[in-house]
Amino acid sequence: MDVDADMKNTKVNALFAQVPGTILPDKTYYDEGNQAGPKLLPIYAKMMTKLLQKTGYEKDEAQKIVDDTLQFDRLIVPWIKSAEESADYSKMYNPRKFNDFVNTSRYLDLAAITYSVIDVNPNLVILPEPAFFDHFNEVVNPDNFDLMKNWMKAKLVQRYSGYLSDEMRVLATTYSRALSGQKEPRNQAKSAYYLATGTFDQVVGLYYGHEYFGDGLLVTALPKTG
């Protein structure tokens, strides 16, 4: 979930409910006959097995988590848009009444989850990909709970490996480098720079504005950026 400007009235903010990302970069990579998907998934699986072992899991446990992750990932695929479909911006605006949204799931308290991250009572939720929420109970249910739990573990380890050690940072970029065709990982200094600026981008931007634009230009620019 995230809060962003309402597409039809940018003077107000709206609550958006997004779909989870898939392992492969586009839905079409999962199609039968696609040659890239079957080559990329083993790279991801090998990388994640190693990362999980480095966080303390035995090899068999790590492989089980990865297998479950791949299986849960497949459950998401039928209900998400391809990159081509997502490019149609006009079809991203699908407001749904909040009361209807929280009743989407028979198994999760979506109202409680929402109120844990925002402190207002929204009237609407915007769903860029409503098909996923129409089939939410087919993906998130007691039968798939263990799969989802291991999928979340894998996501967490992959996301935060860059904070744990430089060895894990490099290992965790194996899959993304395979996607981009980048042979070598970033060096440690450059990686640290991007990590810091990514975390403190607003602070860095404000400093840059004061330091290099001056207060006069900053006053002129601020109204234009909202």
UniProtKB/TrEMBL annotation:
<dbReference type="Pfam" id="PF05649">
    <property type="entry name" value="Peptidase_M13_N"/>
</dbReference>
<feature type="domain" description="Peptidase M13 N-terminal">
    <location>
        <begin position="2"/>
        <end position="214"/>
    </location>
</feature>
<dbReference type="InterPro" id="IPR042089">
    <property type="entry name" value="Peptidase_M13_dom_2"/>
</dbReference>
<dbReference type="InterPro" id="IPR008753">
    <property type="entry name" value="Peptidase_M13_N"/>
</dbReference>
<dbReference type="GO" id="GO:0006508">
    <property type="term" value="P:proteolysis"/>
</dbReference>
<protein>
    <submittedName>
        <fullName>Endopeptidase PepO</fullName>
    </submittedName>
</protein>
